[in-house]
Amino acid sequence: MIVYDKVELENLTLVEEAHSLKEASFIDSEQYKVISKQLTIPKGSNNLLIRLAFFILGSFLYSSICGFLTLISENAIGENFEVILFLYAAVGFAGAEALTRLKFFGQGLDDAFIIGSQLNLAIAIGLLTNGNEIVIASIITLTALINYLRYLHLSMALLFCLALTATLTYAMFEIGTTGKTILPFVIMLFAAAIYFLSKTIISKLVPNFYYKGVLLANSFSLILFYLSGNYLVVRELSVLLLDAAIVPGHDISFAFFFYGFTFAVPLFYLIYSILKKDRIMLWIGFLALGFSIYTIRFYYAILPIEIALNLGGVFLFGFTYFVIKKLKDKEAGVTFKPDRLTKTNAFLNAEILISSQLGLKPEITTESNIGFGGGEFSGGGSGGEF
Question: Per-domain residue ranges for the chain?
Fold first, then answer.
């Protein structure tokens, strides 16, 4: 199914691991250059600016081909715009296939053709089916999955997750009011199923060509699970989908459950991620907790915004300083020591900032006031006295 040479993909994984070791100072630059030169890998770029530049260039190339086809087929197509859009999608798929055959992998040019083909296909299906959302989402789910399995582009893995979620959502809409009412709970179960399924796949994934895509699906499920039960999201969707006007003194159904869910899930993410040392879940937990605070603030403004921000800043500052002091000397487990396999020195910068703001000074070893020259303390010295 994968269009690339699997040996070259394995070499790419080895080069990425060597680059991580170089960044962590386990090997030097010369050793990394020797390793990278000896291994044949697909043509790609880790520099986002270069990849973006080639993506723009690829978009111009793609649009130029589509424009030329429009000029030569304008009279034959007439008013059937969906036909030309299907043709554009076919051009995108053909261009992606040709570029990947030339060993372009995440280089920018191939991204433009892969993403462009999906966009044109979605628009063409929309015109053909008069905007039938569930049909559009279903077909895009299938094509995005095929594209990811073949080209290993993470954008397709993300599109697959979004389209699959949209397919389920529109399917619930088809049920009517009952489907819209139970939609949050269905999405919760759906997200939980994706999480456990992706965890199982990761543990059994050999070889690991699809690891990044499955990991992305796993992270997506965590975000989706939280948003499906967030009070703000549920309440606003209830107003939008069910036309439920919420008057003062009243609330949505199961309001207390969603209140508790809004704060319980982020706290669970934080505690569980620390126990399991899951960095991605930890960051998602922090972001979810921040959005939970915003959720309550959106409906219940207990304090003026400036006072709330100041109090929140003081609390976070004090909590951060306390955690740093507790973890700074730990060598194992949950520690404040910088990770050698990461490029950032954010922990060290945070420690410097907090120390400077609180006026703390580094520990200084003071000179002893005990004289050792005359031999008058604990043993014979130059004077011979004990």
Answer: 307-363
Mean pLDDT by 10 residues, the chain (386 residues): 82 82 78 82 82 91 89 73 86 90 85 92 90 92 93 91 94 88 93 94 84 93 94 87 72 85 93 87 91 84 75 80 74 64 54 53 51 50 49
Selection from 233, 230, 280, 281 nearest residue 258 by Cα? 230
Report how far apart the first and last C-alpha atoms of the chain are (Å, whole number). 86
User: Can you list the alpha helix ranges (DSSP code H) found in the chain?
Assistant: 6-23, 29-38, 48-77, 81-101, 109-128, 133-151, 154-175, 177-181, 183-204, 211-229, 231-242, 255-276, 279-299, 305-327, 346-357
Tell me the pTM: 0.80
Residue 241 to residue 228: CA distance in whole angstroms: 14
Locate tokens 């462009």: which residue? 116
Sorted by sequence, the CB contacts under 8 Å of residue 34 that are 6+ apart come out as none
Paired tokens of 321 = 């300083």
